[in-house]
Design goal:
The protein has helices at about 25-35, 45-55, 70-75, 80-90, 160, 240-255, and strands spanning about 15, 35-40, 95, 100, 105-110, 130-135, 145, 170, 180-185, 190, 195-200, 205-210. The chain is an alpha+beta fold and about 290 residues long.
């Protein structure tokens, strides 16, 4: 008997898991550009009800007992739609979360400052995902998380971000019970202003990549990657976030990519040409030989 090993509390904590990918080319590319994906009401009502009963008895920030509950692991961590999206973005045999926390908000509360979570880095790699789960209906009055789409590539110091008051492109994650949303870790976000009274619960946990990146989600052979519409993407410098998203998508596909500059892929042109692929598009994503 190996006396140096310790028995884990659950056979599933932090272990590799695999399932069928559920996202297609366009959805994976959109995730790279937006930095988040909403999956509304995907968790069964039974699991949501059980969660709300659980948090009545467990008010701690990290109720790790859930990691050993099969109904929770199966219903939330392995939720078919959420796990299928994670499988699409992180590849086969991704690791299930090793821990979790519950952001309990005793509403009403003012909004948080805009921030990226601690430990954020800027990278074209996508080696992990930060995922959130609402067990209850979470309308705007309960202060759902707000996100800035595309901001996971925007460089900024935390003390500068904290002074930002008004953001034009903000998206609320207000959603029904059972909603899971998946994020690129460095995305700018905050808890929104809440006006109602009561406790809002928001579970947060991370999945981890184990596989080398390759394009093994749902392939759309006819999908045209050239000249994507980036009109509403946030930026401090035009196209910067779109270029970074193209780098991330290429990395996920296992394609080599170097931005050629100017109007090379993915920088937009007023009119998309159907006659050729955009200059700079990686070879594996092209539809034409030219
Ligand atoms: Fe945060």
């Amino acid at each position: 008997m190996d006396t140096n090993t310790t028995t884990l509390p659950s056979a599933q904590v932090g272990l590799p898991y695999d399932c069928e990918p559920t996202l297609n080319d366009q959805q994976v590319f959109n995730f790279c550009r937006q930095g988040y994906l909403m999956l509304e009401g995907v968790v069964d009502d039974d699991v949501n009800r059980r969660m709300l009963a659980f948090v009545e008895e467990h008010t701690e920030h990290q109720p790790l007992e859930l990691l050993t509950e099969d109904w929770f692991v199966e219903g939330v961590f392995k939720n078919p739609q959420a796990a299928g999206a994670v499988r699409s973005l992180l590849g086969a045999d991704f690791k299930l979360p090793q821990t979790l926390c519950n952001h309990r908000a005793d509403c009403p509360l003012p909004p948080q400052h805009w921030h990226r979570d601690g430990g954020s880095i800027y990278s074209r790699r996508l080696d992990y995902l930060q995922v959130f789960y609402y067990p209850q209906d979470t309308p705007r009055a309960l202060g759902p998380t707000e996100l800035i789409p595309g901001s996971h590539f925007m460089r900024s110091k935390a003390n500068y971000m904290g002074h930002i008051r008004s953001v034009k492109l903000v998206k609320s994650t207000a959603a029904p019970a059972g909603t899971i949303f998946i994020t690129a870790y460095p995305i700018w976000h905050r808890k929104g202003r809440s006006t109602a009274s009561g406790i809002r619960h928001l579970f947060k946990y991370n999945y981890w990549r184990t596989a080398e990146p390759r394009r093994d989600w749902i392939i759309e052979p006819e999908y045209d990657f050239s000249w994507p519409d980036m009109a509403n993407e946030p930026h401090f410098e035009q196209f910067k976030c779109g270029i970074a998203a193209a780098e991330m998508f290429s990395w996920l596909c296992g394609e080599s990519y170097e931005h050629v500059g100017g109007t090379g892929w993915p920088c937009e042109a007023p009119v998309k040409s159907e006659l050729c692929d955009q200059e700079g598009l990686p070879s594996g994503l092209r539809r034409y030989a030219n």
